């Protein structure tokens, strides 16, 4: 594992988050010219790479599946802050922002991160193996959360349109937290071995024994820098959002594609980290990241948005349209067929990536 576990205070991985915060402070609330927006974008990429590094250092210290959980929850908590901030500062067009961003996160994680991880792992090692019990439980949890919060609003009749009534929204929020909490307990306490990397013969490998375990001080420093980097990533994504919106409008794409771009930016740390794990033949870690991020994106975002509706004006549109529902259903079916054998080839990775491409294409040209 190519991670230096020495002092993080003497490397670019410390400078990048600090620089990103400085740029964030200098650019917050300003209209960015095109050259400045490009510079902000470059700094944003540096913060993303630094976040990946520090997340992997923390993961080495706490072990799997806690390491994957740290990154998934940290990114999602800040993603919630970004969505709420944009909804507060936005107008009626932000009524569907939470739905667009959460659904994009589900498609990116369950097809993009999963597909990329399987493809990279299979290209490097021929056949990748993972624990079907733990991964299947994760996929089932994602499917349940997605149906409860994104599919049912289209079918209910208490409110016109794809919208929950206040009582229905409260139930969906509590149910999401309960399901997500039950999964976290299962993953980290009761059946942790279901989520550890395995050999082709099914033998549990445990934590990465080929990497030096960082000291508590190094891990705590990296945890702090991870938080700083993630705050910078989401803050800079918000700073760039007017430029993103202008670019989306200039390209003739619908307003909903803004949520897709935001999700792509916020999920970059998980994507890069999952790809690195897959190359090291730790596909189970990659799948933990993918499905864990999807779960956290729904299970934490929807309750937070439900609470925020107390002071947010306007409707909250959560229900998916017919095209999105079909894509979600196909993703779940393909995911089940991928997970059940407990091993996969590059074909499964390619299929998931094609589904992601279909989602992105239809998001631009619905």
From TrEMBL:
Segments passing through the bilayer: 35-54, 66-90, 102-123, 135-155, 167-186, 219-240, 246-268, 289-312, 318-340, 347-365
Keywords for this protein: Membrane, Transmembrane, Transmembrane helix
Single Gene Ontology MF annotation: sodium:proton antiporter activity
Keyword Hydrolase: no
Domain Sodium/calcium exchanger membrane region: 36-188, 222-363
Entry's Gene Ontology cellular component terms: plasma membrane
Membrane topology note: Multi-pass membrane protein
Pfam families xrefs: Na_Ca_ex
Compartments (UniProt record): Membrane
InterPro entries: Alkaline_pH_Ca-Antiporter (IPR052946), NaCa_Exmemb (IPR004837)
Protein name: Ionic transporter y4hA
Species annotation: Goekera deserti
Lineage, broadest ranks: Bacteria, Bacillati, Actinomycetota, Actinomycetes, Geodermatophilales
């Amino acid at each position: 594992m190519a991670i230096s576990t020495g002092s993080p205070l003497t490397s670019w991985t410390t400078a990048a988050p600090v620089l990103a915060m400085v740029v964030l402070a200098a650019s917050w609330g300003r209209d960015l010219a095109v050259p400045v927006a490009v510079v902000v974008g470059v700094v944003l990429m540096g913060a993303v790479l630094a976040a990946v590094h520090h997340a992997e250092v923390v993961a080495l210290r706490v072990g799997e599946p806690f390491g994957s959980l740290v990154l998934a929850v940290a990114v999602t908590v800040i993603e919630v802050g970004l969505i709420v901030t944009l909804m507060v500062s936005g107008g009626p067009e932000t009524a569907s922002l939470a739905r667009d961003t959460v659904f994009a996160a589900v498609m990116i994680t369950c097809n993009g991160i999963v597909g990329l991880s399987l493809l990279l792992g299979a290209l490097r090692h021929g056949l990748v193996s993972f624990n079907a019990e733990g991964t299947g439980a994760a996929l089932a949890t994602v499917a349940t959360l997605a149906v409860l919060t994104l599919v049912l609003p289209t079918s209910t009749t208490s409110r016109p349109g794809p919208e929950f009534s206040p009582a229905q929204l409260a139930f969906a929020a509590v149910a999401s937290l309960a399901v997500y909490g039950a999964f976290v307990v299962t993953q980290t306490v009761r059946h942790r071995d279901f989520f550890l990397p395995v050999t082709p013969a099914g033998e549990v490998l445990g934590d990465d024994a080929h990497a030096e375990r960082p000291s508590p001080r190094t891990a705590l420093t990296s945890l702090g820098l991870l938080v700083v980097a993630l705050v910078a990533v989401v803050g800079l994504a918000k700073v760039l959002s007017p430029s993103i919106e202008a670019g989306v409008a200039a390209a003739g794409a619908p307003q909903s594609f803004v949520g897709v771009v935001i999700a792509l930016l916020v999920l970059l740390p998980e994507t890069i980290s999952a790809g690195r794990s897959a190359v090291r033949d730790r596909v189970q870690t990659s799948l933990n990241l993918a499905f864990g991020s999807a779960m956290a994106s729904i299970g934490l975002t929807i309750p937070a948005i439900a609470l925020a509706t107390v002071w947010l004006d306007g409707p909250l549109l959560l229900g998916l349209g017919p095209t999105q529902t079909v894509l979600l259903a196909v993703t779940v079916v393909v995911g089940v067929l991928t997970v059940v054998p407990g091993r996969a080839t590059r074909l499964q990775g390619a299929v998931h990536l094609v589904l992601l491409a279909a989602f992105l294409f239809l998001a631009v040209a619905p």
